Amino acid sequence: MAKTKDFHKLSDRQQKILKFMDTYFHAHGFPPTIREIGEATQINSTSVVNYNLNKLVDAGYLERSDRVSRGLRLVGQLPGQDRGKKKVRNAHTTERIPVIGTIAAGLPLEVPEDIGHHVDEDDMIDLPPFLLSGADPSEVFALEVQGESMIDAMISEGDIIILRHQETAKNGDMVAVWLPERGETTLKYFFTEGERIRLQPAHPTMDPIYVDARKCEIRGKVLSVIRRVH
After folding, report:
1. Which of 16, 19, 45, 188 is catalytic?
2. Residues in Cβ contact with 51 at an 8 Å cutoff, skipping those fewer than 6 apart
3. What is the CATH number of domain 94-226?
4. C-alpha angle 122-16-82 in degrees, rounded to nearest 5
5. Which of 55, 149, 156, 221 is catalytic?
6. Which pLDDT band, with edges at 50, 70 and 90, does 55 fall under?
7. What gap in Å lies between CA 141 and CA 162, rounded to an integer?
8. Mean per-residue pLDDT for 107-130?
9. Mean pLDDT confidence for 186-196
């Protein structure tokens, strides 16, 4: 590995990349994608992000593996950052999970019929096993949240929810529910009330959605949430 250079001799862009990666590592426990790095540092070209990441590898600030998605690891500690002894999980211990679309945490959202059938490489994320809560990775998928109706459950616009595919739920479970009559899906707390289902938001000013129990299809139960870094 190359000898680490003076941090302050790096370009402003490279310093921003390192600072974002350091924050992201310690917020999530795994590395950001190239797309996320570009968005956070206002770099529109993935090739430009790649160029700067390679420069940071050469300078001794990063280790990189091309054999796995998110194969980046920050080496050492940045100036002014005191993280104690907390270690970042290695990218090689992650599970690959598809982000198959978006889900509304406010009003129900229409979902394409072929959702999940064509998942691009950029739409895969690598997660540490603890976020799967013991679920089989082949049964796990992710959705990006739109809306704010689950805000009291600490789920906001842009967050990623991790779900296990299942068709049943217990009262109080947070689930993704498909409403076939509307052609819509929504993220809510699930409650059975006789012949109807109450889909309860976690927002003090929003009303629940009531549907016929025979016309409410559970698509998955929420296992964990990845909160967006603002």
Report:
1. 188
2. none
3. 2.10.109.10
4. 110
5. 149
6. confident
7. 6
8. 61
9. 94
C-alpha to C-alpha distances, 11 to 6, 56, 78, 196, nearest whole angstrom: 11, 10, 15, 60
Does 87 qualify as catalytic in the annotation? Answer: no
Length of the chain: 230
* H, E, C per residue of the chain: CCCCCCHHHCCHHHHHHHHHHHHHHHHHCCCCCHHHHHHHCCCCCHHHHHHHHHHHHHCCCEEECCCCCCCEEECCCCCCCCCCCCCCCCHHHCEEEEEEEEEECCCCEECCCCCCCCCCHHHEEEECHHHHCCCCHHHEEEEEEECCCCHHHCCCCCCEEEEEECCCCCCCCEEEEEECCCCEEEEEEEEEECCEEEEECCCCCCCCEEEEHHHCEEEEEEEEEECCCC
Pairwise CA distance, residues 34 & 47, whole Å:
9
Stretch(es) of the chain classified as CATH 2.10.109.10:
94-226
pTM above 0.70, yes or no: no
Per the structure block, which two tokens stand in for 5? 């250079």
Residue intervals of the chain classified under CATH 1.10.10.10 are 7-76
- Is domain 7-76 in CATH 1.10.10.10, yes or no? yes
Q: Which amino acid, residue 25?
A: F
Q: Is 156 a catalytic residue?
A: no
* C-alpha to C-alpha distance for 53 and 1, rounded to whole angstroms: 14
